[in-house]
Structure formats: C-alpha cells, structure tokens
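testing teh design pipeline on a random one, pls ignore if ur not involved
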C-alpha cells in the first residue's frame, strides 16, 4: 500500500501493525536514516512530500520503502 503521510501522526497510522523488526529501504535523497520500522516510528519530523510503501502481506522478509512523492497532477477533476 502506498501512502503519502503528511505528518508524523499519519506516518504512525501507515505503519499500523507492522513489526518493529521489519526492514526499511529509503532512497538516498530523502533524508531518512531509519533501517527498521521501529526506528521509523521514533522519527520526530516527517516531510509531507515523502511516500511510504508498505507490503500487502505481513511477511518478515518484506520491506517498507520510503521515497519522494512524484509531482503527478490529477487529469480529471475529483468528483
């Protein structure tokens, strides 16, 4: 699941019930140094242009990915 967390509270919701030991992969240019979900839960600030991608299945071998949000714009208006 891909989520654009706007703040730390939204990040906490996105991480939900993921195990603290699950690995985190962050792009080099995002400024996130957390290596596990447990470390990611302890961040005190979160940029709203970052996107977190969580695995669909809770597998210990899965990873959470952190990257920059693309600047794609909506083509059709929101209903």
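output:
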């Amino acid at each position: 699941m891909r989520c654009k967390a706007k703040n730390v509270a939204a990040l906490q919701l996105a991480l939900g019930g993921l195990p603290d030991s699950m690995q985190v992969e962050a792009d080099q240019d995002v400024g996130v140094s957390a290596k596990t979900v447990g470390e990611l839960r302890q961040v005190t600030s979160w940029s709203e242009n970052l996107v977190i991608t969580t695995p669909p299945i809770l597998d210990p071998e899965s990873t959470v990915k952190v990257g920059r949000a693309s600047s794609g714009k909506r083509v059709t208006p929101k209903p």
